[in-house]
Amino acid sequence: MEMRIPKLVVESDSRRAVELVQKSQVEKHSQSALIRSIKELLVGLECVVVRHIYREANFCANTLTKARQEQEAGVYCFELPPTMLAQYLLADRCGVKFPRDVLM
């Protein structure tokens, strides 16, 4: 399948998920089949970057994930960003920084 995606940046706030996808060999893991499927999708792309980001940089994805739990299964496409993301998109556009709590 030709996806014609010249560059793809995949960001996750799960450091472990990023490590598993970046490894050359898929280790025994409860999600091995999913990891293998992700790696197979990424192999066909020209330029892929998989990187860890902190939870504070992932507000939109987390908001969509939480909202998704309340909806029927399926694929959802949006012509415009859902209103639930408005505050996060505006904050991002304005360069608002969110503090990160670090436990010591």
TrEMBL record:
CDD domains reported for this sequence: RNase_H_like (cd06222)
Gene Ontology molecular function, alphabetical: nucleic acid binding; RNA-DNA hybrid ribonuclease activity
A matching Pfam family: RVT_3
All copies of domain RNase H type-1, residue ranges: 4-66
Coiled-coil stretches: none
Domain of life of the organism encoding this protein: Eukaryota
Name assigned to this protein: RNase H type-1 domain-containing protein
InterPro entries, A to Z: RNase_H-like_dom_plant, RNaseH_domain, RNaseH_sf
